[in-house]
Amino acid sequence: MKNYKFLVPILLVALLGGSVYKTYSDREKINKQYDNDITQARQNRKLEVYVNAEEDYLDALKLKDSAKLRAELGEMYIEAEDLRTAAKWGESLISEYPKEYVGYEFLIQVYLEQKDYASCFRIKDEADGLKISSKKIEDIISDIKYEYYLEGEYAQVEEFSNGYAAVKKEKKWGYLNSKGHRVIESEFEEAGAFAKEVAPVIDDKGRAFYIDNEGNRKIVIDFVDNIEKLGYMSMDNIFPVNDGKKWSLYSLDSKKKIAGDYDEVSAMGNGVAAVKSGNKWSLIDTKGKKVTKDKYDSVVMDSKGIVCRNDRIFAKQNGYYYLFDSKGNKVVKTKFDDARLFADDGYAAVCVDGKWGFVDKDGKQVIKPQFNEAHSFSNGLAAVRFTNGWGYVDEKGNKVIATGFDDACDFNEQGKTFVKKDDKWQVLTLYLYNHES
After folding, report:
1. Which of 155, 322, 328, 419 can bridge 292 by disulfide, Cβ–Cβ 3.0-4.6 Å?
2. In the chain, helix, strand, coil percent, each to 5?
3. What domain count does the chain have?
4. How far apart are the first and last CA of the chain?
5. 86 lies in which domain range?
6. List of long-range contacts for 82-90, beta carbons under 8 Å, 24+ apart
7. For residue 21, what pLDDT is reported?
8. What pLDDT was estimated at residue 260?
9. Could you say which residues form the signal peptide (predicted)?
């Protein structure tokens, strides 16, 4: 930044306007002097004699104050590379002229120059609150919509679930909340996803139980012997249990086994779970009854162990994956080499001929297969792997967050996700959803 010693414009605001008409009685003289000051200010600005230009602008403002002229002076501060003064001047501008769009345009531009994206979105919020908009404001916000920052450092992470995410640090697991703040310290040997305000964990003594969102022991399964692992607690209060040999599904309400003993089981989701005996999978309902007589070579589970979401399931038969509904009916005849479960009401990732694309709930292709790997869409964005690493695309397939990550997770509703680089996981946060209003 060049070393210009500008006046302190914020202190001069009080001197602007009003007093001129006590000094000049002749409006024509005032207009002439104003024009001269503006002409001189612009000439000095063109010559980069910024200190003199500032004085000329301020003289003109004392004669005729306006948001437009203040913005012009502010633009000169940007040219002089004094962004700090420009920001202060811009804040005073919107304070004095809160209903003039030019002030918000200028101030957002200043913060853009500073790469202070949080302040850009804050000013946009203020403008929206006053129902002020302009093409320039919208264009700037559109350009920085996916700007982000990274924080934290973890050895392993799990996806955000119901407001929390399990993270591993210093060989123990704890939890972050949806804002990325640590709320449960790293003290568990294993930790699962939150559901209904509880999550399955294993402590340092090998005991498995459910904790609440403060880390307190909440549910102890005392009606099951030999618990090695606990799974995701469904909305139906049904959960998977491993006894060291087999998996079963139990009901917390009846305190009885509803299905077992299987080689593998999924968590219950949308009233459906998958169970495996030998080499084949079947679908069962909340009472443990089979949904269909069909059997599958494989089923697609998400990170929580769920196989059904949005009434949709991906399962493998005769070498290919198909899209089924929760009753086991095939939604479309389209074959997929691989697939990812729907994460929300967005699109699901599917693999065809070695490349990943996306389909909607009806199995219709919405983004053609073109990526090396992909996750399903979550909150409007999908993690995809390009040649040079993982990044994110929007629902039109446009790359919106640069690639280069070694791995990536799904976005939560607060605009946060996890990305991996150089063997460490960090929280990636979008400024769009995380700035002071």
Report:
1. 328
2. 25, 35, 40
3. 1
4. 29
5. 9-144
6. 82/1, 82/2, 82/4, 82/6, 83/1, 83/110, 83/113, 83/114, 85/6, 85/9, 86/110, 86/113, 87/111, 87/114, 87/119, 88/9, 88/10, 89/9, 89/10
7. 47
8. 87
9. none
- For residue 14, the domain's CATH number is 1.25.40.10
Give phi and psi for 51, each to the nearest 5. Answer: -65, -45
**Does 51 map to a domain?**
yes
Beta bridge partners of 168: 156, 173
Q: Which residue has the tokens 């009846």?
A: 254
In a domain, 41, yes or no: yes
Q: Write the CB contacts of 265 (distance below 8 Å, at least 6 apart in sequence).
A: 231, 240, 247, 248, 249, 259, 273, 274, 275, 276
**Residue-wise pLDDT tens digits, 394-429:** 999 999 998 899 999 999 999 999 999 999 999 999
| Closest CA relative to residue 53, chosen from 32, 69, 30 | 69
Residue 87 domain flag: yes
CA angle 9, 11, 17 (to 5 degrees): 80
User: What are the tokens at 83?
Assistant: 């962004």
Which residue carries 């009080």 as its tokens? 14
* Inside any domain, residue 35: yes
Give residue for tokens 């979105």.
121
β-strands 280-284, 273-277 pairing: antiparallel
